[in-house]
Structure prediction request, 893 residues.
Amino acid sequence: MQPTQHTTLLIIGGGPGGYVAAIRAGQLGIPTVLIEGQSLGGTCLNVGCIPSKALIHVAEQFHATRRYSNNGSPLGIKTQAPTLDIGQSVQWKNGIVDRLTTGVGALLKKNGVKVIHGWANILDGKAVEVGGQRIECEHLLLATGSHTVDLPILPIGGAIISSTEALQPTAIPKRLTVVGAGYIGLELGIAYRKLGAEVTVVEARDRILPTYDKDLTLPVAESLKALGITLYLEHSVEGFQASSKTLSMRDRMGQSQTLETDQVLVAVGRRPRTGGFNLESLALAMNGAAIRVDSRCHTSMRNVWAIGDLTGEPMLAHRAMAQGEMVAEIIAGKQREFSPTAIAAVCFTDPEIVVVGKTPVEAQEAGLDYISASFPFSANGRAMTLEAKTGFVRVVARHDNHLIVGWQAVGAGVSELSTAFAQSLEMGACLEDIAGTIHAHPTLGEAVQEAALRALGHALHL
Amino acid sequence: MGTHVIKMPDIGEGIAQVELVEWFVKVGDMVSEDQVVADVMTDKATVDIPSPVAGRVLALGGQPGEVMAVGSELIRIEVEGAGNLRESAQAGPAAQPAAAEPAVAAVKAAPQARVEVAVVAAPPIKAAPAHRSAPVAREANERPLASPAVRKRAWDSGIELRFVIGSGPAGRVLHDDLDAYLARDTETSVAPASGYAKRNDEQKIPVIGLRRKIAQRMQDAKRRAAHFSYVEEVDVTALEELRTQLNQKWGDSRGKLTLLPFLLRAMVVALRDFPQINVRYDDEAQVITRFGAAHIGVAAQSEGGLMVPVVRHAETLNLWGAANEIARLANAVRTGKATREELTGSTITLTSLGALGGIVSTPVVNLPEVAIIGVNRIVERPVVVKGQIVIRKMMNLSSSFDHRVVDGMDAAQFIQAMRGLLEQPATLFVE
Prediction:
């Protein structure tokens, strides 16, 4: 039995929430221990945000080259049909992941955080056991993130894969069926299609990306069609026969149907990771499947904190990071509160979708008297030069004082507009503020200014 | 195009004025036929005013809280066809529809001149668009608007941004606003370490509608009646046993009984011997009217405030009949559906705060009645019975009477009669 260790802050989970909390706590001089069971960086760096974006980039480059080779592009570039060495692609992706996770480790070390690799087991609200070592702390921060939701009828293994396996391909299957048309399913489905697979998407609800409004998802639906992705809406999967490689499903009317497919990617969502580290012994108040926290990320137990996906929707790395930073500052004695005006949500489909703040529907539900206006990229010069004329930027503002309450956009590369959107909301910008800011020409950002102008009734280029 | 004027209708017998409670439309809105445009209030009932015509609202005749005479102009609507306003009078608003909004301001400023058509055509008073006026007042629960840097500085200085007036666009709180707030309240700036923000905010809430009604009636009752209160404790152990048994046996089929139906029954039975307490006293005519019927008001909390729906002819109701009627009335009050009839005509009132009943209360008599029975909470207490200390369920009755017409002796005997009935619950039902 090793002697008990003591620390001020003990963090379980080294994902974006946990490691940012640890870095900030280190900066503030708080003795901090971080326990990570797998690899620093969590889902985001290892099997989520970063590797999926790497794979999407590979897919886009490959797809573009293929277009040049079969005269599908008007740009005048001619080339031979490209080939794909997926093993090398994955290696390149792993290189990025390694660089980033090593970087996180270095940052933690630089800030004096003690990292323990091992599986934490909670003993009580002030003590955790890891590898036979008992560690006592004043503050316990839970940052264990989330895991993919499994379907009992489609157990992961063999031809049935989750997003984790899909980001580590050894070969691109001839036929891939994606179960779930949420953002994860569509991002990967589109990437696999561009890498050459025949992709089918099955969704139980009546439309793709059900959390976004129809105007925003329409350009994505059109893109799926253009890419040749087959879509089955209002179909429920019933099972997969591995021997015959057939996926059976049923439509809304109960009509059965089978699909032949080489791989099935299950992407039906994520759930807070609350099991496997004796969390239940704390009997914390829950909010559905998530840990309930107040506006300071404090749980129902004194000096036990929880951040990120573990606390439920929206499950976004940037939310977890902001919460982690805040909790470290609270523990350092500062007065803080997690009260962002908005948290941007980005969907890296083709085209991309970005949503920050209230949509028109949400403004209506909130009882706001609002104005909404959109500006299409088809009227934006830079979009034309990028062959990216689909999509639009939309603004939602209060009618009485023109305070902007929401931004949405769909189009190629619009994820980068989230910066401008979030900034304008957090700064409390009014339509006149955005309309009166000179936006560089020629950029996609001009559509942001034009949307604000249009809401004020005088768009210049429409 | 013509103009249709809706006048304040006569909605109660002999009522000369009613209070405008709420507008559901504003100037420029389109209204359809039968659409409710306003709520007005008489005595205690709120009445919807529907529009008999379809058209566009030209002008509103008053603001919420204003007491308006029956027959005065309530709303002016532009309609297809002739309307009901004579031609010469309508020229003003029809010629200058743009002036409609400022005209409301004029109407507000000069309520006496409301009926004059000329006022409607008054020149604009306020020309600046509303959204650029600063500072902007926030709703009580509205999130303060401030940049992240301002928010952080406020946290660090222990300032609650909710209490800082924002002078920026849309009411945004700027660094300058924080400076001004800190300068005004230096104590906050030197002692943020205490962790508790000092509050200097005030909120003015106009006393209108039901609250004004309650205020008037309570003041009236306190001024006119000669209140005295009388408190007696009642051993309700047997009553509670009976109630539990009845609920076990019939709770599912007939509904659960609270204590209220038993108290109603005790009042009904006790009042038979005290007709001088079940009365309404008209102090202006100097007449006391005794009632054979027991119309028992049961005080109930609504969203807007206290209301007293009336259980009519309580003497005819058995326990479950009374329970159902109380539940129905309470629901009507809560949902704002209670009619004028259901809210008037009581001869005596029962008030109970349930678990919040406290030890003693001094209820205010619901004029023109002369008695109000208040119920305090039930507590288990050690009580001496025949030389032994035993645990009994005890409950106080705190009642008030109008001493102008109820003598102390009568009041005491009446309460003792109720106590006897409640302590020996069988006697409640022996005729």
Observations:
- Chain A touches chain B at residues 334-337, 339, 398, 400-403, 426-428, 430, 432-433 (CB under 8 Å).
- The mean pLDDT of chain A is 95.
